[in-house]
Design goal:
elongated, 12 helices, 345 residues, mainly alpha, 0% strand
């Protein structure tokens, strides 16, 4: 009976002691240096563990360990918050630097690629230094040695961190492609909606908006090329344009169309149309597909979004003969100059 009363008395005191220590640990400021806190928690755990050995049928060591784990989790969360704030500050500095007026180089051109490389190097260096510093302070090696924590199965695996970083990078890259694609798409959509296609004259040249679109994509290529490698692209077929033009001219009554279609029997003509339609639907292009971390893949994603917008805008309009010819001139211009930016012609 005396031992039981002593156990209850000690348990009450330990409960108060743990509560006071918990309040004190929670009030400890985040200084990014946890050596003193680690030593204090080590002593705290040792004292409660010693009481457990003196009094049988008690488990004060686990109570102390719960407080140690709670303190470690709190410091990890504080370190994550500090890293986020540091990254946001670094990104803000880069954003302000990019928005500032640029100084021309000796040849009169703006050193965009050099500036991007500089900003990227600084951003990566600052982020890596912050992560290394925080990771060094969070590795409670002294605590592991003192508490003899050999089982580290509860630690976060390295691949979880790398996968999370890659997923965040993929989301950021997809957002960039969608944003830039929407910017170019807005120009194309407004150029189609605001033009009088029924009353326009005979086309003399490509419209100015198409040149603007090409300039915008060229600028994006320079910016992206400063950060990413080229990537893989399919070889451009030398005769694809001739095949496409020949098939279009034949179907629209161009030179040689009578002899071409007259050579097909009705059944052969039907089979040919079915085969071409099946090929058309089987090669459907996915517009908003995730892009790879290469320059060609990023620009391909932007171009696909832009051309899809142009296609849908044209599909909803009514054209006169000259209006249709103007669209054909613009399309030929884009076909001539855009292929070098994309992975697949």
């Amino acid at each position: 009976m005396a031992v039981e009363k002593l156990r209850e008395f000690v348990a009450g005191l330990v409960e108060q002691y743990v509560a006071v220590v918990g309040v004190r640990v929670a009030a400890e400021p985040d200084t990014a240096h946890y050596a003193q806190l680690t030593t204090a928690l080590d002593k705290f755990y040792r004292r409660l563990h010693a009481i457990t050995q003196l009094l049988p049928n008690t488990n004060f060591g686990d109570t102390a360990l719960d407080l140690v784990i709670e303190a470690a989790s709190s410091r990890c969360q504080a370190s994550l918050t500090a890293l986020k704030m540091g990254l946001a500050s670094s990104l803000g500095d880069v954003r302000h630097a990019l928005a500032a007026p640029r100084h021309p180089t000796q040849d009169g051109t703006e050193s965009t690629q050099h500036q991007l490389n500089e900003h990227l190097t600084r951003l990566v260096a600052a982020t890596a230094a912050s992560i290394k510093d925080r990771m060094a302070t969070l590795q409670l090696s002294h605590c592991d040695e003192q508490l003899q924590l050999e089982d580290k199965k509860g630690l976060t695996p390295l691949h979880n961190i790398t996968d999370g970083m890659r997923e965040a990078g993929q989301r950021l890259l997809n957002h960039y492609v969608h944003t830039q694609g929407a910017s170019v798409s807005q120009m194309l959509r407004r150029s189609v909606e605001l033009k009088d296609w029924l009353g326009c004259g005979e086309p003399r040249s490509v419209r100015r908006v198409m040149r603007t679109v090409l300039d915008e994509i060229s600028t994006m290529e320079t910016q992206v090329g400063a950060l990413y490698e080229e990537g893989n692209r399919r070889d451009r077929s030398s005769d694809s344009s001739r095949r496409t033009f020949h098939s279009l001219s034949a179907s629209r009554g161009g030179p040689g169309s009578r002899s071409t279609w007259a050579s097909y029997a009705p059944s052969q003509l039907d089979n040919s149309l079915v085969a071409n339609l099946n090929k058309l639907w089987s090669e459907r292009i996915e517009i908003f597909a995730p892009v790879e971390f290469t320059r060609v893949s990023i620009l391909t994603g932007i171009v696909k979004i832009s051309l899809k917008t142009l296609l849908e805008s044209v599909r909803l309009r009514t054209f006169s003969r000259f209006g249709l010819q103007q669209v054909q001139v613009d399309a030929h211009y884009l076909r001539t100059y855009l292929w070098k930016f994309v992975a697949d012609e």
